[in-house]
Amino acid sequence: MNNLLAISFSAILFFTGCGVDSSQDTEGTTDSVNSQTQNEDKMNEDTKEESNTGSSANDSESNAEADAATLDKGRAQVILEDYEKAFKMVINNTNDQQKLNEYSTKQELQEHFEHFMSTDRANSFVNTYFRVEDDGLYVKAMGGPTFLLEDEAFSFEKVSNQQYQVIQERYNQQMGPTNVRNIFTLVKQDGIWIVEQVEQEEISGENENTSPDNNESNIESKTLNKAQATRVLEEYETAFKKVVNYTNDEGIQQEYTTKEGLQTHFEHFVAPDIAASLVDTYFRVENGNVYVEAKGGPLYLNENNPYQFSETANGMYKITQEIDNQLRGHIQVEFVLSTRNTVWVIEEINTTQLD
């Protein structure tokens, strides 16, 4: 098992998110909430007694599905916070010439952003705020995307079980000056809540002008090569280590206050059952705070040692590697990768004892 590496977080944010988004982009992230929708069906008196048990089971199943799909205001805010952090962590991890330290191609950056937003949003982010030079990716000197202002009031509306909107009005000097309404649309795709789009409309005059994001290209990858699969595992490792290392002296996690919010964050990189296992194994909640447990971390890929890449019969991919682990001994670990919301994530992590 690899030891957790300390990862420093940059505290300087280049973009304040208080202006107009030139491409109207948005960000995603999340706190867990359950809300039930009950459907009642009238039944025939003749068959009511017979079908009572089956009806209850169906109602329970429907309610469970509704719980998993619905969202509340607090969790929606966390999704938008994660979206903002995903962008700012990239633009703040640069050298003095604004060259990105972590990503070297637009494709890598696109794949990172797609954990938090739609493919169109991610593509717009990459093409609007970054430029390619011979030696890598650079941040453009320009204003940033529109983000939710956490200290300002905002409303929350349900469009459907799979779509919600966060609406916030604010004064905008760049547009007049005038007041604008920012509409963040959140959708659930393949079990992950993401930011689909952001719209802005002027509300100071008689004619309201709604300006949706315009994005031209749509990058979707249904196949995977070894380098891309390796990148998926790197993203997973980085996501976990950043959470673990962003604590105060008492070991309190500084970004997340609930296990539900933390699990939702991990679900951008791994399947829900793995995310739940990570949270339950390595974190605890005390007095309203999330603490990191003092123990070794999960299994990661060691890129310095040989590993195999292959495609499975059901269209998934897997990376296998033999490792010597202090706690588990000599084992083979298998990472199975699949797509959720067109994003490659870790679907399974399997181990086999070799001796």
TrEMBL record:
Compositionally skewed regions (Low complexity) per UniProt: 55-69
Stretches with biased composition (Polar residues): 22-38, 210-223
Composition bias, Basic and acidic residues: 39-51
Region span, Disordered: 22-69, 202-223
Protein name according to UniProt: Uncharacterized protein
